[in-house]
Amino acid sequence: MTKKQAIIIGAGPAGLTLALELLRRTDIQPVILEQSEYMGGISRTVRYKGNRMDIGGHRFFSKSDRVMQWWFEMLPLERPPEGQPESEVVREIAYHGRRRTVRSPDRRSADPSRDEEVMLVRKRKSRIYFRRKFFDYPIALSTDTLKKIGLGQTLRIGLSYLTSVIAPIRDEKNLEQFFINRFGWQLYQTFFRSYTEKVWGVPCREISAAWGAQRVKGLSIRRAISHMIKDLFRAKPNDLEQKGIETSLIERFLYPKYGPGQMWERVARQVVELGGQIITNQTVDRIHTTANRISAIESRHSLNHERSNFAGDYFFSTMPVKELVRALEPHAPEDIVEISEGLIYRDFITVGLLLNSIKVKDANLAGEKLIKDNWIYIQEPDVALGRLQIFNNWSPYLVADPSKVWLGLEYFCNEGDTLWSKSDRDMIELAADELEQIDIIEKSEVLDATVIRVPKTYPAYFGTYDRFDVLREYLDHFENLFLLGRNGMHKYNNQDHSMLTAMIAVDNLVEGRTDKSNIWAVNTEEDYHESK
Ligand SMILES: Cc1cc2nc3c(=O)[nH]c(=O)nc-3n(C[C@H](O)[C@H](O)[C@H](O)COP(=O)(O)OP(=O)(O)OC[C@H]3O[C@@H](n4cnc5c(N)ncnc54)[C@H](O)[C@@H]3O)c2cc1C
Nearest Cα to 326, choosing from 311, 336, 318, 315? Predict the structure, then answer.
């Protein structure tokens, strides 16, 4: 009897997880078609002259024990420091105060200085850079913050916050109104507006307030003020309560020694070892449908443009929904095409800069060459730069020569706009100039650079997104088509969510469940995102 076949579009976290789960738990044979030559999609590791870049900085964290367990099976956890029991490490990677009980299955642990396959446990540090000064991220209403802002601005922030408390904007519709109602106009202007508008490329008043409710939900000025007052009156640093607080604020995350792509290259190897197929350089551009099924798909080789045809029993798509609808044959009804064409994405450029050293230092890290941040939000409105990654601090193994500093400068843009269309040379010039302008580097210290352009990094929750349900219902009616992952579902999914959509799709096949609502339910719980 011939085996049933699954055609999977995309070798990102969702597509690769799906293939491995099918091989482990069913008789269905997976074939992945991937348009690039890389494994991991936007979670891949980019290599440049022995250095490695992570597009976006991918922390490995999940509220799902199933996902954590899966990761540990692929890459064993780093051996804890001398004298610290393994259980301590497991506890310290607790996310949002929730104690983790998962650990490497056979209690394997690896030594990063010797073993290649290892999941590092990294300390997280990120800050906001504004007016050439560092502020805690998420912004803390501490005496340090107030000192840096200055008395005049602090008073203005206080007054504008009081105005918002006394006379809030009724019928709050957009993100600007959402921020003002919670923080007041001045605080919104100071810490929220510039970065948010850089990310989305539109004024905050054109973004729905619902987005704020999902992403910024936990922040509250009342809580911040009560924290500040407690801080002022807290007893000496080493009293018991203080110790307890510091422990609960320690944040760590997991990170493969060679960046996120190491995980996905490892999974891809296992898929092939177990008999799955991964065909690279294949761009899926036609999807043939009958009444309520997909019958076959076609792809084009990205180098020689040869066309191939793939028939299958099940089809799983992680390609952007907009492109999937464009590929349907016969065409989707007009109203569906209209919604799909109105979906908006935000694109992304990362400039890798290799330097001898950077200029900015931490006062309390005297003698240290490098500040400790993993990434820094650039809130300065006079530069286009959105975020800065310090790859040395993600994993020292991302840098070929550890005496050098390896940075990633992130620019948010739209495919085809002036930033996107700049030559690599001009983009590198801009990046180095901007970092010098905001006093982070001396341009003369730059040794080498590279530019990576990544389309469709952020599926936007504006445009026609408010009618996405109609599109979803239409696509779900193809009974053997399953939409998975981030762009595949037009959802702000992290790696773990993307993986869970794949795992649940396989659960459904195993259990004979045909309704797809549990796949769409992944990442709908509102408290998932960072709230601290
Ligand atoms: C800036 C940034 C920071 C992030 N930080 C984190 C983080 O800290 N932690 C975290 O867990 N997640 C993070 N994420 C999210 C993470 O990158 C995604 O959730 C994950 O990569 C999505 O996996 P996926 O398989 O759904 O899609 P993708 O990674 O997009 O993979 C889709 C694959 O499909 C291929 N493809 C597309 N169209 C076609 C086609 N027509 N034919 C064939 N192949 C096609 C693509 O080439 C790609 O390989 C971040 C994302 C960004 C942009």
Answer: 336
In 312-467, which ranges are E strands? 314-317, 328-329, 343-355, 375-378, 387-390, 405-413, 446-463
What CA–CA distance (Å, rounded) separates 31 from 279?
7
Rounded distance from Cα 87 to ligand 1 centre (Å): 32
The per-residue pLDDT of the chain, averaged, comes to 87
Answer yes or no: are the C-beta atoms of 89 and 80 closer than 8 Å: yes
Domain boundaries, the chain: 5-43+262-343+461-520, 136-248
- The pLDDT tens digits for 428-444 are 999 999 999 999 999 99
Per CATH, the number for 5-43+262-343+461-520 is 3.50.50.60
Beta strands in 366-445 (DSSP E): 375-378, 387-390, 405-413
Rounded distance from Cα 487 to ligand 1 centre (Å): 7
Q: What are the DSSP E strand ranges found in 217-281?
A: 252-256, 277-279
* Size (the chain), residues: 532
Question: At which residue do the structure tokens 């330097």 appear?
Answer: 355
- The residue contributing the CA closest to ligand 1 atom 38 is 319
Q: Contact 68/62 with Cβ under 8 angstroms?
A: yes
How far apart are the CA of 241 and the centre of ligand 1, in A?
A: 42
Kind and range of the H or E element at 493? none
User: What's the predicted TM-score (pTM) here?
Assistant: 0.90
